[in-house]
Write a structure and sequence with these properties.
Elements (H helix, E strand, L loop, with lengths): L3 H13 L2 E2 L2 E2 L5 H15 L17 H4 L14 H4 L10 E18 L7 E4 L6 E11 L4 E17 L13 E17 L4 E17 L20 E17 L2 E8 L14 H4 L6 E9 L3 E10 L5 H4 L3 H4 L17 E11 L4 E10 L20 E10 L5 E15 L17 E18 L2
Antiparallel strand pairs: 1-2, 3-4, 3-5, 3-17, 5-6, 6-7, 7-8, 8-9, 9-10, 10-11, 11-12, 12-13, 13-14, 14-15, 15-16, 16-17
Length: 449
């Protein structure tokens, strides 16, 4: 297995020395390049929003989003590298700028609990999020292309004005906010007419806060590092490797793998397992696409290994058995690994107008016995329906947009609130959690010489 940091360093260095347009970016060191790239990312970070497949994004780029999020075998714009860096070999010089309006609706019920009546809690303290994205591709030679993409990879947010843990001793507003921004410099190389490979450095910037969780401080290795410690952040680097092949005229296949990326929130080392560890999970996927004269059909499958990140995948049952929060291999949110299936269609209706549609499905990651802690992180939607459109402008530029609806999903708890959690029982019963989402996106793209 290659060393992710070493490979990422080499990719960033190579990208930094590439000629882009009429200018050349000359950096004296890889560190200097990374600092400049991250500085650009941080300018856009305050607008970052959240995600849908667990806490990974539904898709990257407006064209892919309008086709249900497909992209491993169908590179369509400068965000191809977010799926499969080899795909840039099939993308012409271009610059994409876009923004997605993300509208989640999340809530929770506590039912059958001895310490109070059944009650519903609204987690929509913040209702609207805006997610920016920037993508750039430049062909350096007939075989070599370089790219840079900036996009929101994922996240979660809940804001409860009425603390759902108040009956157990919690106070004040409650909720969490997780944001993940990816900056991905990449290179692709065409091995032959029918095959290309690619490598990308995934520079992940994460930030997180939690509040209103003081009730859990007594069950932590670091009681003062559980809640209400402001926003903490983390930077990590991983790699993404990809391959794209043409099997027959119009028929392409692609596959990509992304390494786990180390992350840590020291201000919340009393909340997350392994002393605040919060890695971006390893993920991989593959796809197939057929492009005819007017019709395009594509399908993807993606796997995200949430269970390999202790703070996300470890079951909360360990807490109820006496293992404190923040401990090595300590309690987490109990998320399972997820597999997402996507299917997309595109129709070239006229020389200027392309219409798109797509669907996706996954088995949501939260077991029925893990809903109590996941009141804070109800990433349970499963089914998405997407529509999209691209209009070619007279000057060669293009406008693209998409609409996606994630249908509402409720997970009803099963023995999710323990009756005898020490030192005082939590009164039994269950937490039911629900989520639905709507997304609207718009982008403008320049075709470059």
């Amino acid at each position: 297995m290659p060393n992710p940091a070493l490979v990422a360093s080499r990719v960033v260095t190579a990208f930094g020395m590439a000629r882009i347009g009429r200018s050349s970016i000359q950096q004296t060191s890889t560190l200097g390049t990374l600092r400049r790239l991250l500085a650009t990312a941080l300018v856009l970070l305050p607008a970052l929003g959240h995600a849908t497949n667990g806490y990974f994004s539904h898709g990257y780029g407006m064209r892919a989003q309008g086709m249900g999020g497909v992209g491993y075998a169908l590179p369509q714009d400068a965000f191809a590298t977010a799926y499969n860096p080899a795909g840039m070999a099939d993308v012409d010089n271009r610059l994409d700028l876009g923004v997605t309006w993300f509208i989640p609706r999340r809530s929770a019920d506590i039912v059958g609990n001895a310490f109070g009546p059944d009650q519903r809690f609204d987690g929509d303290g913040r209702k609207n999020f805006f997610i920016p994205e920037v993508g750039y591709v430049r062909r350096l030679s007939p075989r070599l292309s370089a790219g840079l993409a900036l996009y929101g990879n994922g996240g979660l947010n809940t804001e409860f004005d009425d603390n759902p843990f108040a009956r157990f001793g919690g106070s004040g507003e409650a909720g969490v906010n997780l944001e993940q921004l990816f900056l991905t410099p990449s290179l692709s190389y065409r091995l032959s007419e029918h095959h290309a490979i690619g490598v990308a450095a995934n520079v992940a910037y994460q930030r997180f806060y939690a509040r209103g969780l003081g009730v859990f401080s007594g069950f932590s290795l670091a009681p003062d590092k559980v809640s209400n410690n402001g926003t903490d952040d983390s930077i990590g680097v991983g790699i993404r490797l990809g391959w794209l092949g043409t099997l027959a005229p119009g028929l392409t296949v692609g596959a990509s793998w992304a390494s786990k990326i180390d992350g840590r929130f020291d201000r919340y080392r009393g909340l997350f397992a392994d002393g605040g560890g919060f890695d971006v999970p390893e993920n991989y996927g593959a796809g197939i696409a057929w492009q005819g004269e007017r019709w395009t059909v594509a399908a993807d499958v993606q796997r995200v290994l949430y269970s390999e990140v202790g703070s996300v995948g470890n079951p909360v049952a360990a807490l109820f058995a006496g293992v404190p929060l923040g401990a090595d291999n300590g309690p987490g949110f109990g998320w399972r690994d997820v597999t997402t299936y996507k299917l997309g269609f595109a129709l070239r209706a006229t020389s200027r107008l392309t219409l798109r549609a797509g669907v996706s499905h996954l088995n949501q990651p939260i077991p029925e016995g893990e809903t109590f802690f996941n009141i804070l992180a109800p990433g349970v939607v499963e089914d998405h329906l997407s529509l999209g459109v691209t209009w070619q402008l007279a000057n060669g530029a293009e406008l693209s947009g998409f609409f996606t609806h994630a249908f509402g999903k409720t997970v009803r708890g099963s023995n999710s609130i323990p009756a005898g959690f020490p030192p005082v029982g939590l009164g039994g019963g269950n937490a039911d959690i629900r989520l639905k989402e709507t997304m609207l996106g718009l982008s403008y793209a320049w075709r470059l010489r």
